[in-house]
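Predict structure. Chain length: 377.
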Amino acid sequence: MAIDFAVTGREDNARAGEIKTNRGVIETPSFMPVGTQATVKAMTPEELEGMGVQILLGNAYHLYLRPGTEVIGQAGGLHRFMHWPRPILTDSGGFQVFSLSAKRDVAEEGVTFRSHHDGSTHFYSPEKAVEVQNILGSDIMMPFDHVIGYPATEEETLEAMERTIRWAERSRNHHRNTDKQALFAIVQGGTFIHLREKCCRELAKMDFPGYALGGLSVGEPKEVMYQILDRSVPLLPADKPRYLMGVGSADALLEGVMRGVDLFDCVLPTRIARNGRVMVAEGYLTLRNARYKRDMRPIEPGCTCYACRHYSRAYIRHLLKSNEILGLRLTSHHNLFFLKNFMAEIREAILEKRLAQFYEKFWARYRSAQQAGSDEE
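Prediction complete.
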């Protein structure tokens, strides 16, 4: 087997665990920084390793289109191409095929689409997605799934969910490199809980090494997402990793862990960093705002990240307002460090059986900050 998963601690539904791979151990719960184009924006691999990141996410759709699997294969795989020695999870690109393509034709065999780069025509199928990721050499790979937008009708959602199940089976049957690459399944079903439950049950029968919940955090209210997790996660095998795709805010990460999720990913921390928005215990600060012009405190007092140890809010604001690259590098570094540290604190709380107290303290502080108002001008 490409991975070995063990639960090392529990508190109610939440759990701490370890995913052992050929390239190292991933301590869960864990947040995966997103390196869509074989890079986490503004960060070097050494910086990510230095802050303790254990796994990155790449995207097969983007890498298939540019620079192409031939180039990455010639380099010896994605790890060598991007100079990252630790585990990588690659998303198949189902979300991108259905959201970025200028034009697409969906059939049972697969999807014909036009590249959002140059308009060239491509055909992507469950088998093709497996082949692309085999060349990339990721440690964990995702099957090609039929992703639909929000909102969608029950009829549309049912069709996409059932196709996702069929495509998952085709992906599993086509995957050969099972000793080095673990193929997870993806649960779809939109916001229709009974469809989610059906998808969980059908995919669980196929005995994948891990299970992901896709098609969430795409515009639906967070409470709806939490309700879906409440009903879906218990139906997934307890001895396999559970991965919630596309979630990266501290509140949603904590709520996901409370419901038994082990892995998360999202572009949020680096995306908002490029706009000068940083994560703190109370929520967010927007460093571009005038109130920080003479603020000589670090982004978050007590934080031990590189940015907070060496620079002030005032200096970082100056960099951002001057369009200096260092500004967005520092905000990106801080946000990624913040989430890595946040997940480590959650894990420690689970192992020490004090997650309930951690949860109450987090929400008391978070709600108090929200009631006090935003730091926007």
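Summary: The CA atoms of residues 61 and 365 lie 40 Å apart.
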